[in-house]
Structures are given as C-alpha cells and as structure tokens.
Specification:
alpha/beta; TIM Barrel; nine-stranded mixed beta sheet; 15 helices
C-alpha cells in the first residue's frame, strides 16, 4: 500500500460539497484520493508539503489532434479551407507511423507540463494499423490519461475509389483494439471512436458508425458544424430515431447548429466540446459556451490542434471565458450604458476545463474534481509566482492569471509526472525525442512538397 499525504495546500476542489479549502490536506492511497480536509493523519504516509501552492484537479483537454504536434504553428494565417487542403489532402497522406508516435509522445508531455492530465486524443491520421499503434505507443509512454479516439483519414477522392464519406469506420480495427491492447477500461489509455458523423458521412455510414461504437461500449465523438455542405442534411435526427443517440456521444464545435437540433442533442445527453481559440479563427458563428448554458448544460473545452495556436488549457479556458463575456455583453440592451452584471464567471470556465471535460469522456466518476474515491490527478500552482501574487481569490487567479509557467508539479494516478518545475522524464530523453520529431516532420514536408514558410 502506497500512501501520500499532501499537506497545507489551497485546494480548489471543484466538488460543490467541498468547495475551496485553505491550508488543507489530501490523503492519497495508491492511485486514488482517500480523504480531503484539514488536519488529516496517516502515520505511514509520505508527507508532501504543499505550502504556498494552489491545488486544482488536473485539467482536461476534451479535443486534441495530438498527432499534429510536429506541425505546430504552420497554420497561423490559415482558414479552415487551407487546413483541409494542406493537412487532410496533403500532409496527412504522407504522414508516417513514426511521426505519429513522436507527435503523440511530445504532445502529451507538453500537455502534462502545462497542467493537463487527461486528453481526448482525436486521432484521424490512421491510414494503417501501424499509425494507430504508434499513436497509442506515444500516449502510453508519456504517462498521460487519454481516451484514444480512433479516427479515419479524409483523402481527396481518386477516380474509381469511394469518397471517404462512403466508407464505414473499420470494424476490424475497433475489434482488434477493444479485444487487445485497449481492452482494459481502468488503464490510463482507453478506447473511443472519432467518427465522421452527419457532417462528413452518408446516412448509412453514420448509422453504422454509431451502432459500432454502441456495440463495443465506446464513447464516440464527431466534428459537427451544420454547414451548407453537410452530407446528411437531417443531421442527428436519424441517429436519435434509431435509438443510438445518448451521453456516449460527444460533438465538437457545433457553431452553426440551429437551436432545435442543439436542444435535441442536449436533451439526449450528448456532450458538447467547444474549441474557442480555433473557432475564432475559422468559424463565422460563435462558440457554443453560452448557448449550451442557456439549455441547462455545460460545454467542455478543447484546444483542437497545435497547427493554429497554443494548446495549453489555461490559455483555452481564459480565452473561452472572455470570448463568452464579449458575446454576453453584445446581447445586452444596446443603450450605451455599462454592464450591470457579468453573465459568465471564472468558476464556470474552470468547470468547463475540469468536470465538464470528465463528463464528455464519460469519466466523471474518476476525474474532474478533487473528491474522495476519484483518481489522484492533481496540478500544483506555485502561489509565489510574480505574475500571480497577491492572491485574493484562488479561482480568479487560476482562470485569469495562471498559465503553463505557474505549474510546479503534476500528479497522474497518484504519481508525480512533473515535480518542482521539472518533468520527471529526463531532459535528455525529451530533447532526443524533439530532435527525432523535427527530422521526421521535415522528411514529411519533403514528401508532401510542402514549404511552411511559403504557405504564409
């Protein structure tokens, strides 16, 4: 039995029954939280002094194309049309299993270093089983908690071949993974499905994919916009009529959804993930944070992809909050008078990045709050940071002032993966893998005939 007693931290639990506790303790046994409170005793436990830290639940990035870590920053001046052309119909077609492994490994390490302990890895570069295995290898080696959402590629249609929208999700791969290396739902890396949905598949393929996910007991997730070129014009209604729509499905984006369809989705328990930092660059409609709130639910948040903008969840959370506040202000009566009350709070934004993310991944019984019985996934923020002091309200500090540099330590499953400002993985190993990724991506650019500087 391995026990740790974290002493004297300021705990932002995100558990309504516990709230915020100053000078409090967390008792951990093996990988789980045993108790939270003041003056806890455990004579045989390792004592960890948390004086001068704010402790929050590990942040949850509910939508991340981790494989694209090696393409960081190439799309800083792209539209979504550029993204589809350059990534899906270009670079992705020559992306290698090695680069997929390295991108997932370094991307996951980067998430951990920045205070994210869980991701939904929305992997849609799976041209072969070797790509899939490389992606999973990277996640497992990193030590992150991840729902590996197995996706499919979206190449340009060739003469004599079916369009990707007409190709069902490969049952053989889901069966191989579900009965093989990702059969254990208690492991750090578990299986989900990244499916095409009504946006990108025919009705027959859509029904097949939803049924496949339900058959294997998997969370499924789909990119959803409701653009004019949506393949299934009826949207999610055929899925609901087939009895296949529920809390085990997650939609990402959804900016153009009409009110009736969005309400129908939420009434069925579907979770919604917003990626405001990306949507602000590529969508003509606002993120769904406020619209979902009005329907009685909460969005989760994702960073989406490193090709556009930084993927640390402090940045995403703060941007999401301030963007939604701008929307709230626009919706007030335009009488040129000051706003009397803010409609969206920092606490809500922290919920989006914690407990709402846990729900999107169907892990709310395991993660998302510092609650006895849940996994010990914790992030420690150093309170003496020059950019944080003085601290009057811990939640405001976390959401509006903290960033990746504030993260001193990170714990996943009761074990430190970052401690005292340094990753537990050796700096030499990280540097080696960074060099390997750079070389692998440069080779891919050559294969694709792509010049990242010319594209700007």
């Amino acid at each position: 039995m391995n026990r740790k007693l974290i002493r004297n931290g300021t705990i932002v639990s995100m558990d309504p029954s516990l709230g915020i506790l100053a000078g409090a303790d967390i008792l951990i046994e093996n990988d789980c939280i045993l108790a939270v409170g003041h003056g806890l005793e455990a004579g045989d436990a390792e004592i960890i002094d948390a004086t001068g830290t704010i402790i929050i639940p590990g942040l949850i990035n509910a939508h991340l194309h981790t494989w694209q870590t090696g393409l960081r920053g190439i799309a800083g001046n792209w539209t979504s049309v550029d993204y589809q052309k350059n990534i899906h119909r270009g670079i992705a077609m020559v992306y290698t299993p090695e680069a997929t492994y390295l991108g997932n490994l370094l991307g996951a390490w980067g998430q951990i270093s920045a205070g994210t302990t869980t991701i939904m890895d929305w992997c849609h570069v799976n041209a072969t089983p070797e790509h899939t295995d490389g992606a999973i290898d990277g996640l497992e080696q990193s030590g992150i908690r991840a729902l590996f959402a197995h996706g499919t590629v979206k190449p340009k249609k060739k003469e004599g071949e079916k369009h990707f929208s007409e190709i069902p999700h490969p049952r053989s791969e889901i069966e191989r993974l579900r009965k093989g290396r990702l059969s254990n739902d208690e492991a750090l890396v578990t299986l989900g499905m990244a499916i095409l949905g009504p946006e990108n598949s025919t009705k027959e393929v859509m029904l097949h994919d939803f049924a496949l996910a339900r058959e294997f007991g998997l969370v499924s997730s789909s990119h959803t916009w409701n653009r004019k070129n949506r393949v299934v014009k009826e949207g999610f209604y055929p899925i609901a009529e087939a009895g296949l729509l529920g809390p085990d499905h997650n939609i990402v984006h959804g900016n153009y959804l009409v009110d009736d369809e969005l309400k129908m989705l939420i009434d069925h328990g579907v979770s919604v993930t917003a990626t405001p930092t990306i949507e602000a660059q590529s969508a003509k409609a606002d993120p769904l944070c406020g619209r979902v709130k009005k329907l009685g639910d909460k969005v989760s948040l994702g960073s989406d992809t490193d090709v556009f903008v930084a993927s640390d969840m402090f940045h995403v959370m703060r941007f999401a909050l301030q963007f939604q506040r701008a929307i709230d202000c626009r919706q007030e009566a335009n009488d040129n008078m000051p706003i009397e009350r803010l409609a969206t709070s920092p606490y809500e934004a922290l919920e989006w990045a914690t407990i709402a993310g846990a729900r999107a991944l169907q892990m709310e019984d395991k993660i998302g709050s510092i609650t006895p019985g849940k996994k010990a996934d914790l992030v420690f923020l150093q309170m003496d940071d020059l950019c944080l002091q003085p601290i009057h309200d811990p939640v405001n500090t976390v959401v509006l002032f903290a960033d990746r540099s504030s993260v001193s330590s990170v714990m996943i499953d009761g074990a430190f993966v970052k401690k005292s400002g340094k990753m537990v993985e050796s700096a030499d190993e990280i540097a080696h893998q960074q060099s390997e990724l750079s070389a692998a991506v440069q080779h891919i650019f050559e294969l694709a005939g792509y010049d990242p500087l010319a594209s700007q």
